[in-house]
Specification:
The chain is built from 14 helices and 14 strands. It starts with 6 loop residues before the first helix and ends with a helix. Helix 3 runs parallel beside helix 9. It is globular. The strands form 2 sheets. Strands 7, 8, 9, 10, 11, 12, 13 and 14 form an 8-stranded mixed sheet that branches. Strands 1, 2, 3, 4, 5 and 6 form a 6-stranded mixed sheet that branches. By secondary structure, the protein is of the alpha+beta class. The protein folds into 2 domains: 113 residues, Glutamine synthetase, N-terminal domain (Ubiquitin-like (UB roll), Roll), CATH 3.10.20; 307 residues, Creatine Kinase, Chain A, domain 2, CATH 3.30.590.10.
Length: 456
């Protein structure tokens, strides 16, 4: 794991930003929800010098913020304070805030943060990366996130609706790769790119996606996979903050509309050697034998880790035929109908695009599952079989499960996952997901009334 930030980093920031009044300290929980505290300027240096206590329960909460009593982080440990320390490079100004504010991301200390350390998703990713490094492999990664820009006010039926364009209208039609659609949100994009530049987040190409109000912006790959996921986490917070400033809401929900495209998080990955050379690089379109072993490993662990790619009940609504969301454990070369795609391009750029994750996935956990699968494939020299050519939807022999409970049970019963992620982490994560499942299934809502109120 990268070292925690030095006190000098905070001192230099305070000198360079004398106007900053508040500091938002946050840690990312297993649902990808940032949780933390708002500190005054004079409290910052103490965080860097000796950490900041956070309750053990903070990493064992449901997505709605409820304690999970059997997570092992509540009554058994007396909701003990666990010390978290700042991540190097995470102290950044938040230019969209009215009060001059900066944010600092923290992670649990390996020993002072116990027992919550075992549930810290960033620690899990660092552990998986360290395992690959020990065998001479250095993962290179990037995240590609889709999101919807929504109006902060629902429509007359109480449902979410696309945000207004700069001309006052609403996007009603799907214009894939439409340039006018990007022009209509230019004020938002200008502030977003400016904020990304200020925070050192490598935001690149913007695309109008497959639904009204849906946008995708790619992040540049990083030779440090942990850094790449740190940036993905901060990018999501940044998008939401800038959207709010513009009177909009940025939505990373996997399937916010039943009749429109879902939102995904495509993960790009390759392996380098200690000198930074791409071990997947090949003139062959399907890459090197090592690349194919990596694909084989990811395919063999796909069901076991699907809950970490698609963590919520809504995540599974995204999986529909001919929707560009994959439906089976398949791979192919430059083929968007499969789960694992090897994009075209020059030999040096050869890599794998993992297309399964919803935009609601925790980047740390998704990356950890991807890399652990790759490591298994290499160690066991897994053969992925022949790549799919043509329509992968039509050729799928066995579909992925499209319900939450099946994937929860798959992870729960996986001996591979227990070895790769550890029993302590899985104990907390599965306790949280089981609690959410019970709560979700026990809630009666609008769909129940519409379907059954007068018919049953």
């Amino acid at each position: 794991m990268s070292v925690f930030a030095s006190l000098h980093e905070a001192q230099a920031f305070l000198e360079q930003h004398p106007d900053i009044e508040m500091f938002e300290l946050f840690i990312l929980d297993n649902n990808g929800v940032p949780r933390g505290k708002l500190l005054h300027r004079d409290e910052l240096l103490a965080v860097y010098a000796s950490g900041r206590p956070l309750p053990s329960t903070i990493l064992g909460l449901t997505i709605n913020g409820d304690d999970v009593e059997n997570s092992g982080l509540v009554w058994e440990v007396g909701d003990i304070d666990c010390r978290a320390y700042p991540i190097s490079g995470s102290l950044q100004r938040m230019p969209w805030r009215l009060i001059p504010t900066a944010a600092v991301q923290v992670s649990m200390h390996p020993t002072e943060g116990l027992p919550a350390t075992v549930a810290d998703p960033r620690h899990l990713l660092a552990k998986v990366i360290a395992g690959l490094n020990a065998d001479g492999y250095y993962p290179v990664m990037a995240a590609e996130l889709e999101f919807y820009l929504l109006d902060q006010k629902p429509d007359s039926h109480g449902r979410p609706q696309p945000a207004r364009d700069s001309d006052g209208g609403r996007p009603r039609s799907t214009q894939v790769y439409g340039l006018r659609e990007l022009e209509q949100i230019e004020p938002f994009l200008a502030d977003l790119y400016s904020a990304c530049k200020l925070q050192g987040i490598p935001a690149r190409t913007a695309i109008s996606e497959y639904a009204p109000g849906q946008v995708e912006i790619t992040l540049e790959h990083r030779a440090d996979a942990l850094q790449a996921m740190d940036e993905a986490v901060r990018y999501k917070r940044l998008v939401k903050g800038v959207a709010h400033k513009h009177g909009m809401s940025a939505c990373f929900m996997a399937k916010p509309f039943d009749d429109l495209a879902g939102t995904g998080m495509h993960m790009h990955v390759s392996l380098a050697d200690a000198e930074g050379n791409n071990l997947f690089a090949s003139e062959a379109a399907d890459g090197t034998p090592l690349l194919r072993q990596a694909v084989g490993g990811m395919l063999s662990t796909l069901l076991d880790s699907l809950l970490m790619f698609c963590p919520n009940a809504n995540s599974y609504r995204r999986f529909q035929t001919n929707s560009y969301a994959p439906l089976a454990a398949t791979w192919g070369v430059d083929n968007r109908t499969v789960s694992l795609r090897v994009p075209g391009g020059p030999a040096y750029s050869r890599h794998i695009e993992h297309r399964i994750c919803g935009a609601d996935a925790n980047p740390y956990l998704a990356a950890a599952a991807i890399l652990a699968g790759i490591h298994r494939g290499i160690r066991e020299q897994r053969d992925p079989g022949a790549p799919v050519e043509g329509n992968g939807y039509a050729q799928a022999k066995e579909l992925l499960p499209t319900d939450w409970l099946t994937t929860l049970r798959a992870l729960e019963g996986s001996s591979w996952a227990r070895e790769a992620f550890g029993s302590e982490f899985l104990g907390v994560y599965l306790a949280v997901k089981r609690a959410e499942y019970r709560q979700f299934m026990g809630e009666v809502g609008e769909q129940d009334w519409r379907w059954y109120l007068h018919q049953a």
